[in-house]
Predict the structure.
Amino acid sequence: MNEKTNHQDEINALKKDILFKIDLLKRRGALCGELNTKFTNIGFSNSNTFKALNAKIKNLDSGDVKKQLTQVQQVIDKQLSDHIKFTNKRAYFYALPKVELNKIFSLLQQPNEFFLLGENNTSFNLDELTHDLIETSLIVEDNDFKVIYLKNARNRRDNIRIQGEISKIKSVENEEIIDLIKVIQYSMNAYDFIAFDLKNEHLIIGGDLNEIFPRQETEKAIEKIQIAIRKLGKLSDLKKKNLRNCVENLENEEGGDVLDHAFITADGGYNHAGKSITSGQDVRKDNFHSDGIKGKEADYYGIVKAYTLQNEEKVIVK
């Protein structure tokens, strides 16, 4: 009896963990289609919504349930980790000598008044923050490139339609309620980061959830980290670099696919913004672009570019 109970407890714990992480991916703005592909690869039927994926986990009760759930947990752990590491980030670059980079990297791993040392630097702590401090999290080290992820709290607002509640509201003469919206606020962990490019001697500060929160909120979080780093390292100044010139370099670079770009010709006669986000094709190869840019000098002021990694995953820079 105890063995059966323990087994069911393990099943329930696995389901709870998976459902929590599916919800977290949804809140972070992940695409259901990406997760659905991973699910179908391990034997689940096709799903179009996060709600449908949740239902599959909740209702899973036949076959080797524990084995199936363990496979799902492995898939979703990687999906969530990758999303936290790489997706929805806004980053700024700061030129800094290698000696200063190494000093700051070392100081961030010691008790200090600006950053609270997290209990674990080998994985992301997903527990909700209960304080207003910036907490260190996962640390990734390579020979010439190191990253310290930070855990920070952001308050998010969502609008939810509650049309079913309309009948409960007392009517007013000459008025009809046709829609009802509830505004909710909840706290989310944002995993900002500080990267140390020792080879090129640059500090990089990145804000998480850039496409979830208003730009000014991400900018505010980055500025807060920048000020703390400057004080921690006793730096007289730390100015972000202007990367405008990189846009043209990315356009002319043969590698990667340009999914979106914006430019104006030198004579001001041709202003073009072209997108290929859905098709994933390189917009430089379409006839409209080739004809419009032919024989003209262009000033590029925006770009979205995708690079395919060795494992066929893509990283998008914009």
Observations:
- The chain has a mean pLDDT of 87.
- The longest helix spans residues 2-27.
